[in-house]
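Hey, quick one: can you model this chain's 3D structure?
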Amino acid sequence: MVVLNKIYTRTGDAGTTALGDGSRTHKHSARVASYGNVDEVNSTVGLARLFATGETDEAMSRIQNDLFDLGADLCRPDMDKDATAEYPPLRLSPTQVERLEAEIDMMTKVLEPLRSFILPGGTELAAHLHLCRTVCRRAERGATELSETEELNPAAVKYLNRLSDWFFVAARMANDGGKGDVLWVPGANR
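Sure thing. Here's the predicted structure for all 190 residues.
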């Protein structure tokens, strides 16, 4: 259980922060940037939830919790020590990725196939979900960049990849099942 009695600690005043294993690193390191990007995704989801109801809101609640799991995963380096750790780190599981895939498949069944790229927009919820999608793509780029120099849980990157797809499909659902999608018209303003 986390207990936060004091919010400021002054331990980061010199530009470093503690990782999940207790080691310290620069606040601008690729690892800190990676889980910071995930935190930004989570914040955009919180904003989008202001416009969500029912099953969509419930799914986004699960996603927010998953994103905290993902942040915990990314802040814990050294995958090799997982099995021997006194407190095994929280790692994202393949079942969390599979859940997103199942939800995407359920939503896609009721959508008409796309015949054009779509512009971010439509309803308030759809516009916010598109923002979630783009911030999620940035988080994915950061995680893949980190994976070039440090070992990551493969499910972490897969989750971000599926999640951006989830946001795209959910945005279409929020646009009256795709009927209210804003279609791209190539060269329309030449």
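One thing worth noting: The beta strands are 16-18, 24-26, 118-119, 182-183.
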